[in-house]
Design brief:
70% of the residues lie in helices and 0% in strands. It has 168 residues and is an all-alpha fold. It folds into 2 domains: 92 residues; 72 residues, no CATH class. α2 packs across α4, α4 runs parallel beside α7 and α9 packs parallel to α11.
Length: 168
């Protein structure tokens, strides 16, 4: 399967779901997809998007790559990849040996004004998930969410309100 040819012309959602289903049925292609995800190819973010579609079908195929995504986040600048990786990471329990660098990066993404809303929302969810293990960050997270809600979008504020209810 030549994934590059399949994803080079941007597939519509239905086509991407069909490709994801095909990969889920023949999982040997997941490693090839991951290699394209982490490449510097022009449209490698599309492979990250496809990983998300595969996760929807069979999360077990993507789970082995979650620690690798976590390791990439602190230095990853591509917003599309950040959004997809953080979304996938937010759906899974965080590893016990999660790095402080990763958690700090999530805080940075949450408070930076230029961070896209979807990236902020996924970082917010990861930090909330982490707070159940490290309750010391609950107050800091709550303060940041309240501050960010002043200028947040409706989607951001909706998620922040839900998390704030349980943080308090």
């Amino acid at each position: 399967m030549d994934l590059k040819k399949l994803l080079d012309p941007f597939p519509i959602k239905k086509e991407a779901e069909l490709v994801a289903q095909s990969i889920a049925e023949d999982p040997k292609h997941v490693q090839q997809l991951w290699e394209w995800c982490i490449s510097n190819e022009k449209h490698s973010w599309r492979a990250s998007w496809l990983m998300d579609k595969i996760y929807d079908i069979d999360p077990d195929l993507v789970r082995p790559y979650i620690p690798k995504m976590i390791a990439l986040i602190p230095t990853l600048e591509n917003e599309s990849k950040q959004r997809q990786y953080l979304k996938l990471i937010s759906c899974e329990p965080l590893p016990k040996d999660i790095s402080g660098e990763f958690i700090n990066r999530c805080f940075d993404l949450l408070i930076t004004a230029t961070t896209p809303v979807a990236v902020k929302v996924h970082a917010m969810q990861i930090l909330y998930n982490f707070s159940s293990r490290e309750p010391d960050i609950k107050n800091e997270l709550a303060l940041i969410l309240e501050e960010q809600m002043e200028h947040g979008t409706a989607g951001f504020c909706s998620r922040a309100r839900k998390l704030l209810k349980t943080l308090r």
